[in-house]
Amino acid sequence: MASFKTVMKSGHPPTLFSAFLYFDFCFAIWVLNGAMGPFITETYGLTPAQTGFMISLPILAGAIMRFPLGVLAQYIGRKNAAITEMSLIIAAMAFGFFLVHSFNDVLAMGVLLGIAGASFGVALSLGSGWFPPEHKGLAMGIAGAGNSGTVLAVLFAPPLAQAYGWQAVYGFAGIVMLIPLVVMIVFAKEPPDREHQSFKQHVACLFEKDGWAFSLVYIITFGGFIGLSNFLPTFFYEQFAVTKVEAGRLTMLAAIMGSGIRILGGYFADRVGGILVLSVVLLAAIGSFLLLTAAPSLALTTILFMLCFAALGAGNGALFQLVPLRWPSNTAVAGSMIGEVGALGGAILPNVMGLSKQYTGSFAVGFVAYAVIAALVLGCLFVWQRKWVGTWVGPRGKVLDPAASALAPQGRLEPAPV
Question: Rounded to an integer, what distance in angstroms lies between the CA atom of residue 34 and that of residue 302?
Answer without folding.
Answer: 18
